Every structure is written in structure tokens, then in C-alpha cells.
Amino acid sequence: MIVESSLLPDNAVRRDVVPAGDYYLKVVKKGQTMRILDSEGNQAADTLFYNANDPAERYSAIDTIREQGNVYLSTGTKILSDQGNVMLEIVADTCGRHDTLGGACATESNTVRYAIEKKCMHACRDSWLLALSEHPELGMDKRDITHNVNFFMNVPITEEGGLTFEDGISAPGKYVEMRAEMDILVLISNCPQLNNPCNAYNPTPVEVLVWDAQ
């Protein structure tokens, strides 16, 4: 559901530009609101959420889909953890829907989906692994990479129950905004994907803005 935000960028307490292929790893405190902004349109932001005080608790696609009865996320969606707790709620969304099923690109999936020679191309799992390796204080590794949300990604479900990766439905300046219901460790890979049409084969930056509780 399309709902615009009343929050002003000038009032944000934090604003970060995430280049294509780079990662974002920061804590959003309970009560704060985070906006992911699709700067140039049709970019995919592959995102993982963890309880910042206990990263063993993390986003669960299964619980989120079951409780809302919808495989897509938008305004009003409560993002649940694997312990059934509400982690965040989407409070504004100018894109309309976001994918929970397509997963993240990896060297292995690039090989299966596209060609053997694509294996060495940069992928979202690489960005996540780099983030964790550069922050050893978190005590996390590849075993902690689980379900993710693909914000701005268009992954329709076919009549046969399969998935397809199609042209994006976002546009420059579209955003999704979430209020944190607990302290959240946010790990985003700004997708470097060059193989499917989600971003017109042209990865671009996204921005992440954070506001204190209103």
C-alpha cells in the first residue's frame, strides 16, 4: 500500500549513501525510524535484520509471511523474528511491494541462473561476508546469514508456483520506511547484480536515513 512519510530529510539524525556493491551495517535503536531510499530507481537492497542485543534472534521470512498472509511486504507489515517478536513495522512505502522469496545473489546462484563464467562476479553474499569479517566484534560469520528482504525487488510468482526476476517497479526517489520495535542491527547489501533486469543492468546507490523517535 502506497503511503507517504511526513518525515523530513533535514531532520534525520543520520544519512548514509551506500554505493552499488557496498554494504551498510549499523544499529537502529528502538523507536527510531529508518528509510531506505532508492536514489536512481529499480535498485535492489538485500537486507538482513538482527536483534542488536542478541543477534541469534533474526528476521524470519516464514513467520512474517505466515502472520500477514502475504509474500510481499508494504505499509503495515510487521517484520517478525524467528522467535515471533515484532522487529520492525513498515510505516511508509512509496514503492508498493517488496520481495521476501527471491533470496540474495551469490556466486553459486549466479552460476546456476546465468553461466559458469559468472561465478567470480561480485554478489550480495560477498558483501555480507565482508561486512561480518570487518566487524569481528559482532562474533558473527556466514552461519548467521539467513533470510533476507529484497527491498524494491520485483519477483512475481508464476501460476505454476515458481519465481521470476522481472524489471523493477520502483523509480528514482521511491522509499520504504520502518519503525524499529527493538534495537535492530541492520545489514544491507546494495546489490551489485549485473545479470538480471531488476536494475536495468546498472547498479546504483541507495541512501539510508534514520530519525529519532517522534
Globally, the shape reads globular
- Rg computed from alpha carbons, rounded to a whole number of angstroms: 16 Å
Main β sheet profile = 6 strands, antiparallel
Count of distinct strands: 12
Extract low-pLDDT stretches. none
Biggest sheet: strand arrangement: 1-12-3-10-7-6
The oligomerization state is single chain
Q: Helix- and strand-based class?
A: alpha+beta
Strand composition percent: 25-35%
Q: Could you tell me the mean pLDDT?
A: 88
SSE arrangement, N to C:
EEEEHEEEEHHEEEE
The end-to-end span amounts to 22 Å
Q: What's the tally of helices?
A: 3
Helix content: 10-25%
Can you walk me through this structure?
- This protein has 214 residues and is of the alpha+beta class.
- The chain contains three helices and twelve strands; from the N terminus they run ββββαββββααββββ.
- The protein has helices spanning 61-68, 107-113, 124-133; strands at 14-18, 23-28, 33-38, 45-51, 72-73, 78-80, 86-93, 98-99, 149-151, 174-180, 184-190, 206-211.
- The strands form three sheets. It has a six-stranded antiparallel β-sheet. A four-stranded antiparallel β-sheet has the order 2-11-4-9, covered by helices on one side. Strands 5-8 form a two-stranded antiparallel ribbon.
- A hairpin with a 5-residue loop joins strand 6 and strand 7.
